[in-house]
Design a protein that fits this description.
Radius of gyration: 19 Å
Pfam families: DAGK_cat, YegS_C
Number of domains: 2
Structural class: alpha+beta
GO molecular function: ATP-dependent diacylglycerol kinase activity
Largest sheet: 11 strands, antiparallel
Protein name: Diacylglycerol kinase
CATH architecture of the largest domain: Sandwich
Helix content: 25-40%
Strand content: 25-35%
Cofactor: Mg(2+)
Number of helices: 8
CATH topology of the largest domain: Tumour Suppressor Smad4
Distance between the termini: 18 Å
Keywords: ATP-binding, Kinase, Lipid biosynthesis, Lipid metabolism, Magnesium, Metal-binding, Nucleotide-binding, Phospholipid biosynthesis, Phospholipid metabolism, Transferase
Length: about 300
């Protein structure tokens, strides 16, 4: 493996932590003998193009510095290649890093771990989801949670995470079941009423909400969590259990496993790795061993 590696940086991640994190991470990597170049993600399309150039040029690894959104952008450059992904997790969610036992909000420690793991070839192949030409590592969300994202993205006030708390309260006031049409693998189309449907390549999203708590990164399957029709009171009771994954035993919740899922619902947007994919209908496929990840 070449000793030249690439830092892929989001300077706005974690309210500016991305830019600050690059320096200690790069310092740890250089101390370990690696030559480090940096691609800054001030513009997503341009940054992705430069990341793809680095991968095509034979960089030894692409190190995403930021949160799950930056990891997701890196996946677009890395999926299906032999170039390993390292993660310096300094964003808000950092679910993908947690899946793989990587340090969170400690960029120097992450840099040292990545250096040691690259030298020791400690690299794990993991599955990814793919919807059209978009790859994702965590969860494809639709329904109540994507409506909260839609509303929050339209709001100009308040700012920060409080915006999405307010958006959640407003969506809760407007809670209603969503008619879905779902197809698992090559089975029949099922028509259901649901509050949300989450397609998990991994177990969590949103900074530790274990919506697909039993999902595995290396089984070639999605865990598809369906929260059926429920009242505001029921949703408020179930929601805190999502952080422990104990919501899966609630009667309103069902879980399916499939390698492919198609979702259709009017007026609903899909979000993968916290980023907007587009309106339903969407089809997602689980792609085994689609990316190589640097792990402890």
């Amino acid at each position: 493996m070449t000793s030249e590696i690439t830092l892929f940086v989001n300077p706005t991640a974690g309210r500016g932590r991305g830019a600050h994190a690059a320096q200690p991470a790069a310092g740890a990597l250089r101390e370990a003998g690696f030559a480090v170049r940096t691609v800054v993600g001030e513009d997503a399309d341009a940054a992705l193009g430069r990341a793809r150039e680095a991968v095509a040029g034979g960089t030894g690894a692409l190190i995403a510095v930021g949160g799950d959104g930056m990891v997701s952008l890196a996946l677009q450059a890395l999926a299906g290649t032999d170039t390993p992904l390292g993660v310096v997790a300094v964003g808000t969610g950092n679910d993908f890093a947690r899946y793989n036992g990587l340090p969170v909000r400690d960029p120097a420690a992450a840099g040292r771990l990545i250096a040691e793991s690259l030298k020791g070839s400690r690299i794990r192949s993991v599955d990814l989801g793919r919807s059209g030409d978009r790859w994702f590592g965590t969860v494809l969300a639709s329904g109540f949670d994507s409506r909260v994202n839609d509303r929050g993205n339209r709001m100009r006030w308040p700012t920060g995470r409080l915006r999405y708390d307010v958006a959640m309260l407003l969506e809760l006031a407007d809670l209603r079941p969503i008619p879905y049409r779902i197809r698992l693998d090559d089975g029949p189309v099922q028509e259901i009423e649901a509050t949300l449907v989450a397609v998990g390549n991994g177990p969590s999203y949103g900074g530790g909400m274990r919506i697909c708590a039993d999902a595995q990164l290396d089984d070639g399957l999605f865990d598809i969590t369906v929260v059926g029709e429920c009242s505001r009171t029921t949703l408020l009771k179930v929601f805190p259990r999502v952080y422990r994954g104990t919501h899966l035993s609630h009667p309103a919740v069902t879980v399916h496993r499939a390698a492919k899922v198609s979702l259709e619902a009017d007026g609903i947007t899909g979000y993968a790795d916290g980023e907007r994919v587009g309106p339903l209908p969407l089809t997602a496929e689980a792609v085994p061993a689609a990316v190589r990840v640097v792990v402890p």
